[in-house]
Amino acid sequence: MSGLEGIEQSKRMGSAAAARWTPTAQDEHALMAMELYGNPAETEIRVPSQPEAACEARSLAALVVTAEWGLSAALAETTALLVSELVGNAVRHTGARHFGLRMHRRPGRVRVEVRDPSRGLPCVMPSFGTAVMSGYGLMIVERLAERWGVDLLPVGKKTWFELRVGDR
């Protein structure tokens, strides 16, 4: 069942389902993005490389984690933050017209991949104190993710991270 189908089913089922998940304004934004681009939990979606892309990808990631996979809001927040860092890098540094976003749920972990056509490798920038306002994205990914890395592809690369999930 896709996230949209699950959400529609929850709406039809009434109060018991609504108690588990109630859409917020951010969720409504994510639902519109999912209708436009597709579900990154089902297939890699292609998102235009525009400044608002990080916000859309962040909303989509949080929606998938909570509504599609039924995982915690805390995990959704961490996933959304790390997605916005990877997408922000793809938008700012690759010159790509589009990037790909794919999310996987595996036993014990969530994996998120951002694909772009650049073969330039991202790097963690050293900390220079509070005067520097950018360059901390991958440092945040490195500190919060269980693992992260880059896979070079015949055309471009896939930057990914994994977060540990406590399976029930």
Summarize the structure.
The chain has 168 residues and is of the alpha+beta class. The protein contains six helices and five strands; from the N terminus they run αααβααββαββ. The chain has helices at residues 3-13, 15-20, 25-37, 53-68, 73-93, 137-144; strands at residues 45-48, 98-106, 109-116, 147-152, 157-164.
Task: Please tell me the total number of domains.
Answer: 1
Contiguous helical run count: 6
CATH architecture: 2-Layer Sandwich
Structural class: alpha+beta
**Main beta sheet strand tally, sense and closure:** 5 strands, antiparallel
Number of strands: 5
Rough outline: globular
**Strand line-up of the largest beta sheet:** 1-2-3-5-4
Low-confidence stretches: 6-19
Overall pLDDT: 83
CATH class: Alpha Beta
Strand content: 15-25%
CATH topology: Heat Shock Protein 90
For the terminal residues, how far apart are their CA atoms?
20 Å
Helical amount: 40-55%
Q: What value does the Rg take, in angstroms?
A: 16 Å
Describe the protein in words:
There is one protein chain. With 168 residues, this protein is of the alpha+beta class. The chain has one domain: 2-Layer Sandwich (Heat Shock Protein 90). 45% of the residues lie in helices and 21% in strands. It contains six helices and five strands; from the N terminus they run αααβααββαββ. A five-stranded antiparallel β-sheet has the order 1-2-3-5-4, with helices on one face. β4 (147-152) and β5 (157-164) form a beta hairpin. The radius of gyration is 16 Å and the shape is globular.
